[in-house]
């Protein structure tokens, strides 16, 4: 057949032909990923990448997909995003499926706080019904039952305490310690819970026996046989300068009934020249830190210890922990070496004073088996507690550890918070604490290290003020208005910071501002404020970072519920091994567990006020999608992260971002310094670095934790170049990501390998 053959008739339908896509060049994984994306989005891939038949393969180190329509069109740009669920970075194409889930908020990233968090083991029960408040255990005794005159104090002192200082009755520790210290010449160990009045327990007997040197106790000038140049009778040693200042303030109030008795302080950070001038004029009671006193004993000839009758070691356990053992040995040895004078240089007989040198140890948690401390100071000591007094020789040294109980009126709780939610939970807790006017006047937030204190203060502060007076200039960088935690009931809240790296005048001015402020206050501090400081209006103590030991925890919570007043203490713990730490906290009042969800619900019910910006002087309110507590928490976290990133873009001023990175490093190093017996609860190998970095407003964990170079990008024998203002080990977080500072994919793995080095580098961070 001429026209014979096959006739093929295919029905192609109305749908357009699907273009076959073939990719060449680049890496195998990239080609597979692109082919899968093309298949999923083929209907909308009209301009997608195709390959011509005569295209040549490209280099394996490049990625270049060509299509048949335009050989000169550039390939699809790839984005780098961060998955907060697993803490890993991921490269995706603009046409990938994950693009649809990206947030439409500014920045294009949603701060995921409520995913991939560990599940706590603690069972959270419904809060019990309000019960009758417990009777305070450290309150003064009944005025009808006891009074200061009955303890052996003169009517002059008793009347002064009652009328001027408004102290009608003694506390239990004062009742048990004042009579033996007045009548006997034995060493003593005073142990009682915090806020029970141990300072007056040893100061009042000293003042009483010095006053007995006078012919007349009415205070008339003609009847006084002693004055400031009559000799040094008592030395009080305290571990911190702030505690010395506080003891001096209490003693000054007591000595208003005996103005001829003079006291002064010699502490570090002050002018030694002015201290020598005061010692040259004469002093009867000296309050000092061990280091400065040892310096004066070596170099100040006018300091005569021949008439010294009392040596008081306040917070004796802390003195040993802070490394003052050698100074204490030197001080005790020099005082005992000096012959005890029976009369002063004016010929006044000192028969009314003890005929031997009396040493008194004071602490709330002094361990009774600390043999070194007893060998240094105690001889035939009596053990005095709030309940009894034991005079059995060396009982103060050789007895078992005395069980400590917190004040019964102190309400303790702990919040189990995942690492990612720590920062927003802290803000929510503070915001809820100041939600009602007058509910909380002063709060203290304890943080592990000084770098972290600086960062949280800068983060939570409002716009910096411009002081005009000289006094406020000292606190220009330590006192500011607070943001985020204010409420309609308390629109003005003062934020303060305190740590050991500040200069002494700044520390003194900041602490004075905290005591005297009439507005609600929040003090962010290290353990420097955990010992002996008495601020009557402190209603709340927050341990944002757990203490390095149980003893430090006891002193921290002792800043509230003092002298019979009520108080609250909240401890932050992370899910996992840290939850077992609660079993170590022995207390008369049980710790009540709280869920972070309830804290967020209470704190973020009302809108969050943001710091004032340079563009506007009016405060702004944080806006979230659904205006729920959880959405506000995520919006707040995103705002904080963007604020840190914005600080690095505004003219290169990355002060806040650098502070966050340094605070993170110091926090990790501090985490490794818990006492050996408690490291099972604070296991640094179980600490999630990526989640912990998020609690500092960082989107990834910085390097350089171990103290050395964070990445081995320098060849052996090659010298590392550092600028004049750049420290070694701090180049790992430069914003440009160049050179040794580039964050590579193995950063998290290397940081975990360096955890073993953290133990040796623990001394490099500043605990204050």
Automatic annotation (TrEMBL):
Domain Helicase ATP-binding, by residue range, is: 179-384
Q: Does the keyword Protein transport apply?
A: no
Residue ranges occupied by any DEAD-box RNA helicase Q domain in the UniProt entry:
146-175
Residue ranges of the motif Q motif:
146-175
This entry's Enzyme Commission designation comes to 3.6.4.13
Which residues does the annotated region (Disordered) include? 26-140, 610-629, 698-749
Q: What is its main location?
A: nucleus
Catalytic activity, reaction form = ATP + H2O = ADP + phosphate + H(+)
Keyword ATP-binding recorded = yes
Recite the UniProt keywords alphabetically. ATP-binding, Helicase, Hydrolase, Nucleotide-binding, Nucleus, Ribosome biogenesis, RNA-binding, rRNA processing
Kind of enzyme, top EC level? Answer: hydrolase
**What does UniProt give as GO cellular component?**
nucleolus
Q: Name one Pfam family in it.
A: Helicase_C
Q: Spell out the Basic and acidic residues composition-biased ranges.
A: 61-76, 727-737
GO biological process entries? rRNA processing
GO MF annotation terms? ATP binding; hydrolase activity; RNA binding; RNA helicase activity
Compartment list: Nucleus, Nucleolus
Q: Where is the Helicase C-terminal domain?
A: 409-612
Which family would the database say this protein is a member of?
Belongs to the DEAD box helicase family.
- Outline what the protein does: RNA helicase.
Domain comment, as recorded: The Q motif is unique to and characteristic of the DEAD box family of RNA helicases and controls ATP binding and hydrolysis.
- Name of the protein in question: ATP-dependent RNA helicase
Which source organism? Daldinia eschscholtzii
């Amino acid at each position: 057949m001429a026209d014979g053959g096959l006739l093929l008739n295919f029905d192609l339908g109305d749908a357009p032909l699907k273009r076959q896509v073939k990719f060449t060049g680049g890496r195998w994984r990239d080609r597979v990923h692109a082919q899968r994306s093309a298949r999923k989005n083929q209907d909308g891939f009209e301009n997608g990448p195709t390959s011509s038949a005569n295209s040549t393969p490209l280099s394996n180190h490049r990625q270049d997909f060509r299509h048949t329509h335009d050989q000169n069109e550039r390939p699809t740009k790839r984005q780098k995003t961060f998955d907060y669920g697993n803490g890993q970075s991921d490269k995706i194409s603009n046409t990938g499926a994950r693009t649809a889930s990206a947030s439409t908020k500014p920045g294009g990233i949603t701060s995921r706080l409520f995913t991939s968090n560990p599940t706590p083991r603690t069972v959270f029960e419904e809060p019990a019904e309000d019960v009758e408040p417990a009777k305070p255990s450290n309150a003064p005794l009944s005025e009808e039952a006891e009074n200061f005159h009955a303890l052996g104090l003169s009517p002059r002192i008793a009347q002064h305490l009652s009328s001027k200082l408004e102290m009608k009755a003694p506390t239990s520790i004062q009742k048990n310690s004042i009579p033996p210290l007045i009548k006997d010449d034995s060493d003593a160990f005073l142990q009682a819970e915090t806020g029970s009045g141990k300072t007056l327990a040893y100061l009042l007997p000293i003042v009483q026996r010095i006053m007995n040197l006078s012919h007349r106790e009415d205070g008339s000038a003609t009847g006084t046989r002693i004055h400031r140049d009559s000799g040094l009778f008592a030395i009080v040693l305290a571990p911190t300068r702030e505690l010395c200042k506080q003891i001096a303030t209490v003693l000054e109030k007591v000595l208003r009934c005996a103005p001829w008795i003079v006291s002064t302080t010699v502490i570090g950070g002050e002018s030694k020249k002015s201290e020598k001038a005061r010692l040259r004029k004469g002093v009867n009671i000296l309050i000092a830190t061990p280091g400065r006193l040892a310096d004066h004993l070596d170099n100040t000839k006018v300091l005569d210890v021949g008439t010294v009758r009392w040596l008081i070691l306040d917070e004796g356990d802390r003195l040993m922990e802070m490394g003052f053992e050698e100074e204490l040995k030197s001080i005790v040895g020099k005082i005992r070496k000096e012959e005890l004078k029976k009369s002063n240089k004016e010929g006044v007989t000192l028969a009314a004073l003890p005929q031997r040198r009396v040493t008194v140890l004071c602490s709330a948690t002094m361990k009774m088996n600390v043999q070194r401390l007893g060998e240094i100071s105690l001889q035939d000591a009596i053990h005095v507690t709030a309940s009894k007094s034991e005079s059995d020789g060396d009982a103060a040294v050789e007895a078992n550890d005395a069980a400590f109980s917190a004040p019964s009126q102190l309400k303790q709780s702990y919040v189990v918070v995942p690492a990612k939610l720590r920062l927003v939970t802290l803000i929510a807790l503070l915001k809820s604490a100041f939600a009602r006017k007058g509910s909380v006047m002063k709060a203290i937030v304890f943080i592990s290290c000084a770098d972290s204190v600086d960062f949280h203060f800068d983060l939570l502060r409002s716009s910096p003020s411009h002081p005009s007076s000289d006094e406020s200039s000292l606190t220009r960088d330590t006192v500011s208005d607070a943001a985020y935690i204010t409420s309609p009931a308390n629109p003005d809240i003062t934020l303060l910071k305190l740590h050991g790296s500040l200069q002494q005048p700044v520390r003194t001015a900041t602490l004075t501002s905290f005591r005297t402020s009439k507005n609600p206050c929040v003090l962010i501090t290290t353990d420097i404020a955990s010992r002996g400081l008495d601020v009557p209006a402190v209603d709340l103590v927050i341990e944002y970072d757990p203490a390095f030991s149980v003893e430090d925890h006891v002193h921290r919570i002792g800043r509230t519920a003092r002298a019979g007043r009520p108080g609250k203490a909240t401890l932050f713990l992370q899910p996992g091994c840290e939850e077992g730490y609660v079993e170590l906290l022995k207390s008369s009042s049980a710790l009540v567990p709280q869920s972070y969800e309830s804290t967020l619900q209470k704190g973020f019910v009302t809108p969050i006020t943001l710091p004032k910006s340079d563009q506007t002087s009016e405060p702004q309110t944080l806006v979230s999608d659904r205006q729920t507590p959880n959405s506000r928490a995520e919006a707040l976290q995103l705002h904080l992260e963007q604020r840190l990133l914005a600080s690095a873009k505004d003219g290169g001023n990355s002060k806040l971002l650098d502070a966050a990175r340094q605070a993170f490093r110091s926090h990790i190093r501090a985490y490794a310094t818990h006492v050996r017996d408690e490291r099972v609860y604070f296991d640094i190998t179980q600490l999630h670095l990526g989640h912990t970095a998020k609690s500092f407003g960082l989107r990834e964990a910085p390097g350089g934790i171990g103290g050395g170079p964070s990445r081995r990008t320098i060849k052996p024998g090659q010298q590392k170049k550092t600028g004049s203002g750049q420290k070694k080990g701090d180049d790992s977080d430069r914003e440009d990501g160049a050179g040794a500072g580039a964050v590579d994919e193995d950063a998290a793995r290397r940081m975990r390998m360096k955890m073993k080095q953290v133990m040796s580098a623990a001394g490099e961070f500043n605990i204050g």
